[in-house]
Amino acid sequence: MSAFKSHFVFSKNQRNGIFILLALVVIVQCAYFFIDFSSDDIEVNSKELTKFQHEVDSLKLVEIEKSKPKIFPFNPNFITDYKGYSLGMSNEEIDRLLAFRKQDKWINSVQQFQDVTQVSDSLLSEISPYFKFPDWVTNPKSKSNWKDYNNSNQYQTKTFEQKADLNTATALQLQKVNGVGVKLSDRIVKFRNKFVGGFIADVQLQDVYGLSPEVIERITNEFTVKTPRKIQKINLNAATRDQLVTIQHIDYEIAHHIIEQRTLRDGFKSLDDLTKVKNFPIQKIEIIKLYLTLN
Predict the structure, then answer these.
(1) Residue 257 resides in a domain
(2) What is the pLDDT averaged over residues 238-254?
């Protein structure tokens, strides 16, 4: 026990040393809290700071440009509701274009596009560089050859009666269309024959791999679906998930979102309301609408 106590018994000199050590610790702590060691004279290299700020601003601009949606060349005659909305067109401007096209008329110039849609000059200057018209519009035949060119009926807009039935056209007949070779004509026929009865409507040509909008335009000027495949349309406001997935381009996930949105809306009022459904393939809506009804 005495040995244990000896560890806590200090001599006078030891006690004085401990006291001095504690006093120094207290002094240093007080100095740390009450004395300002910072320097007011901070040197700033204004040139380097300005250079750094410019670099940051440049990186921000690059990121802003990357985040902007990319626009690819397109034929303004085939602008859909969604395409027009993404370009910044108003509903009224889109409706004017669609009404013009329903008259079987075609936009053949930037100025005509503005005359029909009445878009602003600023929007027109932004989107018109991406307009892509067919070669026969951008490079018209000379006046001396124009009469013979028209008489050939190659690019004249034909009526429904003048067009051949797309559901009975052979690969050889399709190859007469400029831009349709052996491979594309075979793809069209094979895709059509996947369905008993063939195509429902011309818009299904969009599902044929390799067909550009310009080639589709030329095909539908010569052919159209005159004997559409008969189908039983599905009531969008009553369809089950299993019924919805039988439609092209709708999988179980999209079917789930459609039913979820239908419940929130207390039923769809228009087939175009499907564009508000999460992950809905908007670019395929015209094909999907072929299989649906609201009744």
Answers:
(1) yes
(2) 93
Angle between helices 91-102 and 110-117 (to 10 degrees): 110
Residue 240 has pLDDT above 90, yes or no: yes
Q: Rounded to an integer, what is the distance from CA 278 to the centroid of its chain?
A: 13
Is the pTM higher than 0.85? no
Would you tell me how many other CB atoms lie within 10 Å of the CB of residue 168?
13
Report the distance separating Cα 136 and Cα 144, nearest Å: 15
- Give the number of domains in the chain: 3
Q: Which of 196, 184, 216, 226 is nearest to 286 (CA)?
A: 216
Instruction: Give the pLDDT confidence of 148-163 residue by residue, as tens digits.
Output: 444 444 456 788 889 9
In this predicted model, what pLDDT tens digit does every residue of 47-84 receive, in sequence order?
Answer: 777 887 888 787 777 776 666 556 678 888 888 888 88
- 37 φ, ψ (degrees, to nearest 5): -95, -5
Of 224, 247, 265, the last residue of a domain is 224
Tell me whether residue 256 is in a domain. yes
CATH number at residue 211: 1.10.150.320
CA distances from 230 to 179, 186, 197, 233, 239 (A): 30, 23, 7, 9, 19
Domain extent for 201? 155-224
Q: Determine what percent of the chain is predicted with pLDDT higher than 90.
A: 42
Rounded to 5 degrees, what are φ and ψ at 54?
A: -65, -40
